[in-house]
Amino acid sequence: VIINSRHYFFVFLFLIGHFVFAGTTGKLAGKVINKAIGDPLIGANVMVVGTTLGAATDLEGNYYILQVPPGTYSIRFTMIGYQSLVINDVRVKVDL
Q1: What pTM value is reported for the model?
Q2: Which terminus of the chain has a lower count of CB atoms within 10 Å, N or C?
Q3: What is the maximum alpha-carbon separation in the chain?
Q4: Which Pfam family, giving just one, matches this sequence (predicted)?
């Protein structure tokens, strides 16, 4: 059996990267729905104002924005055909 040491080194570096960032950032997650009828909004844009962080909702209207530095943010929700919404003072805490 021949072991490729470069392969193991890559896996080791990959795992180290995950531990370095563990516990230093938080996440935003939620669901975007049509308030009038309760249906999920697929493909709505969710942006953290003042950053490059954001996501689009999935088939069930869910969104996940990972690796958000702790702090207080405004979150902007946009979708074609709907009025934009901004929610202020959203607090992000460190994931434990």
Answers
A1: 0.74
A2: N
A3: 63
A4: CarbopepD_reg_2
pLDDT recorded at residue 5? 44
Domain residue limits at 85: 23-92
- On the 0-12 / 13-18 / 19+ scale of CB atoms within 10 A, 32 is buried
Whether residue 76 is contained in a domain is answered as yes
CATH of residue 53's domain is: 2.60.40.1120
Q: Provide the pLDDT for residue 74.
A: 95
Give pLDDT < 50 ranges for the chain.
1-21
Domain count, the chain: 1
Closest C-alpha to 63, from 48, 52, 49, 50: 48
> Are 68 and 28 spatial neighbours (Cβ–Cβ below 8 Å)?
yes
Q: How many helices (H) and strands (E) does the chain have?
A: 1, 6
